[in-house]
């Protein structure tokens, strides 16, 4: 477990979550919701990880910038994150792109999504700003990156992952000196720079930045007046500060929160159907790489009031059972056999059906005799009796969205298309 050092800085900080991404690589999962609003882990949403990290780190002023297909996300935030109170110097601001600067201008980039709300941030009066991506799965103590930011006197501190060098080609990558001062910042380089003393490792940006509020506002205003800027942290603000200021790297290993069961620092971008399925299924391991049962660092979310999960029938071939699986509240497993699967709230699995390596989102119904393997089933889908998925790749690809790795995504519209 991470040890805290010195006086907490988090109470003087504001977490600002950028949650406006389209998430197009998740295909139909983001047809009606933004990527941060996609369900994860049985009862939560992806954005809950960044928000929970902020709360658990001691940050009590939070802003969330939304943009694309934001209704589901905003509804979740209003339902699950309304416990912060202004009388305790706490705040929670949902900040949709509302054309406040210009009636023709939405958020043009990640930096612009902060710039357009400078007046709201000023009203909260934070001394530090922690800029966060709202679409990653990880546990991190932001107090420790705040401490490093102050100790080094950096203009910006950038959280980064240590990754095998040639796996960093899809990231923003930092070249650093022996003191972890950033000397160059390149987006998706073909030949990523390595870490001093370790030629096989590169430092990949996590999209987490720490600034003093005063300096951040100065940089945002400068960037807004710069012709040709894309108004983006990774493309504009950070490269400028690397060249003209002091940018310092913060290694995720130094602030990753781990229980006694987690052996490695865990961070996932669940931005593809394959990565999303794999990260969910990973939770079914006997000792998962990410411990959701760590009460010292809870995953906060909307606590829906539901009855317990229920398992019924116990005859051969018709036994309600789940092995190596997570089954949420208000689920009824009625004579269905479930293995290494993750079943979200309110699902009904009927007799003689089988689920193997399945991620079933809320309020689904699995018909009698259906067999589903290696699938993601979107919210509210009714699987017809006897439907078989995961055994015939050609047929699966004709009817549903099948990835190159064999994961099959099933949505309501796809099921509707099967019905003559």
UniProtKB/TrEMBL annotation:
It is an enzyme of class 2 (transferase). It catalyses: alpha-D-glucose 1-phosphate + ATP + H(+) = ADP-alpha-D-glucose + diphosphate. Keywords: ATP-binding, Carbohydrate metabolism, Glycogen biosynthesis, Glycogen metabolism, Nucleotide-binding, Nucleotidyltransferase, Transferase. Alpha-D-glucose 1-phosphate binds at residues 107, 172, 187-188, 205. The keyword Nucleotide-binding applies. The keyword ATP-binding applies. Gene3D superfamilies: Hexapeptide repeat proteins, Spore Coat Polysaccharide Biosynthesis Protein SpsA, Chain A. Residues 16-284 form the Nucleotidyl transferase domain. This is Glucose-1-phosphate adenylyltransferase. The lineage of its organism: Bacteria, Pseudomonadati, Pseudomonadota, Alphaproteobacteria, Sphingomonadales.
């Amino acid at each position: 477990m991470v040890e805290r050092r010195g006086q907490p800085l988090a109470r003087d900080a504001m977490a600002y979550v950028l949650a406006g991404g389209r998430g197009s690589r998740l295909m139909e999962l983001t047809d009606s919701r933004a990527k941060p609003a996609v369900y994860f882990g049985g009862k939560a949403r992806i954005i809950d990880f960044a928000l929970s990290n902020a709360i658990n780190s001691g940050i009590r002023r939070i802003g969330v910038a939304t943009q694309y297909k934001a209704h589901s996300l905003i509804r979740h935030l209003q339902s699950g994150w309304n416990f912060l109170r202004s009388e305790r110097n706490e705040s929670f601001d949902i900040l949709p792109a509302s054309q406040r600067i210009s009636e023709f201008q939405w958020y043009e980039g990640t930096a612009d999504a902060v710039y357009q709300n400078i007046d709201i941030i000023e009203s909260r009066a934070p001394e530090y700003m922690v800029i966060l991506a709202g679409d990653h799965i990880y546990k991190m103590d932001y107090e420790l990156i705040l401490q490093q930011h102050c100790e080094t006197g950096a203009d910006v501190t950038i959280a980064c992952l240590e990754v095998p060098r040639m796996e960093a080609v899809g990231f923003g990558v930092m070249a650093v000196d022996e003191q972890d001062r950033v000397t160059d910042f390149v987006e998706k380089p073909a030949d990523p720079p390595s870490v001093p003393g370790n030629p096989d490792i590169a430092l990949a940006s996590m999209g987490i930045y720490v600034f003093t509020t005063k300096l951040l506002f100065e940089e945002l205003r400068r960037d807004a007046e710069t012709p040709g800027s894309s108004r983006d942290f990774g493309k504009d603000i950070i490269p400028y500060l690397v060249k003209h200021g002091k940018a310092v790297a913060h290694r995720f290993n130094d602030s990753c929160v781990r229980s006694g069961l987690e052996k490695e620092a865990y961070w996932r971008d669940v931005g593809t159907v394959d990565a999303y399925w794999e990260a969910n299924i990973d939770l079914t391991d006997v000792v998962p790489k990410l411990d959701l049962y760590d009460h010292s660092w809870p995953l906060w979310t909307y606590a829906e009031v539901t009855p317990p999960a229920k398992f019924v029938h116990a005859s051969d071939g018709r036994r309600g059972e789940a092995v190596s699986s997570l089954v949420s509240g208000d689920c009824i497993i009625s004579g269905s056999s479930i293995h290494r699967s993750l079943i979200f709230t309110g699902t009904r699995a009927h007799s003689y059906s089988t689920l193997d390596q399945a991620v079933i989102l809320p309020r689904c119904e699995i018909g009698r005799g259906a067999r589903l393997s290696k699938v993601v089933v979107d919210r509210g889908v009714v699987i017809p009796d006897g439907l078989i998925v995961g055994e015939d790749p050609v047929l699966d690809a004709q009817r549903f969205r099948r990835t190159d790795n064999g994961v099959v995504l099933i949505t309501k519209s796809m099921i509707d298309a099967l019905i003559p």
